[in-house]
Fold each of these.
Amino acid sequence: MQTIRLIKAGKISAQRVGKNWLIDIDLVDANQVAFEKTTSLQKWNKIIREKFNRSLEIEKSKDRELIYSHLHGIGLPHERCLAFQIDNFPSKKEFEIAINRIGFPYWISAVPNPELSYLNRLSKLRLYDVNSGWQFVNKIPEKKNYKIIVSQYPDNPDFKGTALISLNGNGIVEFITGDRHYILTRGFILADPMLFNQDKIIRFSKTITVSEQRELYNLLRGIYGHLEFQHGEIDNKRSITFFDYNKEEAYIEIDKIWEDLSNCFTQKRRTDKKTIYGLPASPGKAVGRCVVLHHETVGMFNKVQKGDIIISDTTTPEMTPIMTKAAAIVTDLGGVTSHAAIVCRELKIPAIVGTREATDKFRTGQRVQVDADKGMIRLDD
């Protein structure tokens, strides 16, 4: 059984958001209380570097102290933070003083010395006590080689999201309700994007209210880059704040994707038993044999040959070796701002996401046509 069938059968928990399904991935607490994580995009980069001796340009060191400084410089609201520099690991008393200044809840970002590529960035989210955070930082391996940053964390977030805005001012924004941004970035939802240019909002998402989207648009207008944001309570006020900002070209060269998305939402689409559609995520076309997978398929590395078209529920860093063989990638789930979509664009792999039913419609061995410019996949006659 594939994704939509599993949802309808009650095997996967999901809720309707407009015409779309929001998948409730029960990997951790849905509110991310004390959620400990590594950075999945960093994982993509490490695998690509190890397997193919190249690095993703998008994966630079993410120092929250610097990110907040950049956000301040462009006039966007953000959380307060305090940092303990490398070789200045805090005492418990110093850590407690910092948390009391930041307030509850808070989160921790541990940023390794950039010269030590074998170390991972680590995070602990939404903490309501000092001891949990202190225990986390003390168990970090080689903790003297980490900068420890503690930041405010919005209480009871209503939604979170990611925005990609080109140098020309064309913007794509995807949202997820609650405190589950990791599900959005990892491509485990059916995204419903908001589209805008510098004159107006072209398309509203059904995930959050129109007024909230207008508020966000007023903040983003005139800014370019990759931004991550949330709406929750900080300092007794509910508002939108930003927690990530990046201006790398791999993030913001999205004018073609923006145009393709605009067309796919406005143009009439051909409907027949051989054709399905999704969201254009990485441009290009391909024709070839398809291989239908689940991201947890056992032995998947042996199933894919060079030039195959991968059809999967979603993609994960562990799938990197087979992704680089693919002529194109098509997924049931995911959005244009997900890490997998970003990686496909940088690796120049045509990709369509959010088809809902590709793994159910096609079978391994069939020959298919993929037009990622139009978000179309079709059985090749």
Amino acid sequence: MAFSAIGALQYLDTVDAKAKEKTERENAREALAFELAMKYGSDGLSSTGTKSGKGGSTSSNTATKALMKTYNLTDETLAPILASGDKTAAPKLLDILEKQRLKYENEGLTLPEEVVSNIVESAVITQPNTEQIDISKLENFIGREMDSLYKELLKQQLKSPGSVFIPAPAFVEMPSLEDLDRFEKRTLQFNLTRAQDELELLSKMSAKYVSMSESTPLTEEQLAEASWLSTRIGEIEGAIKSFEKDNVTPVAGLYGTSYIKELQKVYPKFETAPLNPALLNVARQEIVVPNREFAESLAEAGILKQGDIVVNMKTGKKIRIGG
């Protein structure tokens, strides 16, 4: 059966239309492939038609604005996290902070800025890296060879986004009044035990100076050291006697805040606890020693402990025992 001239033209028009439609489809797929590859590398194709955003999820831009407004986080603070290229980082951080805020508010508290800072600083950030684009993978998706200009652009090394891991923080409950009372008593009991041990060590050290003075006159520095020992012995004996009469203040002031700080490390819920102001104030009293050499002698004798901070009377500077 022969085609008429008109029929042949109609057939050619149909073929041309299909060819044009195929070309347009390939061009569209090529543009999409190029855009995805520029953003995500050749693996970006796997996201087409296979992954979908969850309804109601917060965008990175929205989360960033919320972090800055609600939690006072600055551009500088967020820069390392956002520079990773992980689009989920800001929403993840916002989600964690929101959960912490609600936990504190349920306890009638305000989320401390220090907690916010610790959460941000705990982030483990993987920086973006470079990769070579797999052109053949893109051309399989398009259905034909990619345009030479696109191909040259994509043959250059491109960045793949990094990732951000933010550990879920532990919520530290505030101590009850009973907990606080036990904590303070434990601190005072430690001071009392140490004072009793120190009294024995001081007596032994003082006896050496007495022995030295019986054979040779003491130097001016040795006299100052012997005087310090005598004064310290009287101070500790008085503190122990006061403790026995339920006056705990002198014992609390013997060793500064060093032990309270150590206990707070072991029991973090007491870090921001409202400890007895009277005990805290007296615990800020400083131990003053005649000179650095004498401080070292006291440490060697076991009278001063690692972590103790004393003041050098000669220079006015503080000395931390144990460095």
Amino acid sequence: MAEARAFASPDQPRPQPPPLAKPDAARKVGEGLRERVGETIDDTGKLLAAIAGFGIFFFGAGYFVEWQRFKRGGLPPEEILPLISKGQVAAAGVRELVVSIFFGVLVLGILGWASVRLARWATGRGGKRSRLRRALASVYTVEGAVPSLVLGGLIFLFVPLGWAGVIVTVVLTLLLFYSLRLLNAYLRALGGDGAATFPLWRLLVAAGLAAVVLSGARQREFPETRAHVYVTLTSQRLIEGSYIGSDSNSVLVRINNPARQPQLLVLNRSEIAGMRLERGSYIFPTASSVFGDLFGVQFACIPPECRAGDARVGISSLF
């Protein structure tokens, strides 16, 4: 109570909003970003290193995503991945990471907009100094705490109940908190006497880690369905299963047999007379979440993809 009375006193300075809540914060962040990107583009060595780094990152993420898909499908990933074409692995990484990065940018934009306005309201001079405003103003002294906790709470409400959901919640909350602290520190340094360098690469690393965690957890909890395939051999034998991949020499097909473990057939292209692909069906069990348990529905999300009953819904359907 003594702290509340001291805060309400006109003789006491009011808490200052975090640097990201200042009116010109967005402009300064944009200028710092453009300056760092310009420096990278102008330097040939840095540009080539950045391109190579992004290529390795997407390729590595593709291996991680495919590993999770094979593991969830009951096949040994360490034995199958060497048989998959490198282009297919890279495409899987690009597709999944684009979904995660799109989600991250969207969430940061929404949370940033809402958090800035809430911080300005809590630390502003107008209006009645309610307990809520005083409490929010105190919390905002820990920069990045409010939007990070809000994001963490929302994610935990919808993620599947299990270790994958917990990891997603904790990692995304901590990475958002770290990123917001970096931006606040950069804006604070701009107002001082020291030189300020926009933390581009540290932010990219944080965004990359978040995207990889989201992509890996999504493929483990409710991976993308694989196309159903009908392969007609030159002997006129018909093989039915799930399409795994192919290259110039072979085609990989997963055979589903309820009485046995899943099997992988490696078919030589010279033995194949024809092949037909159809849209696959979802065969994995539904996932529960706090939201689903509260409202009695089968609904869970690994942002930004969700499972509603037996269907997977989300922006990946656009790709």
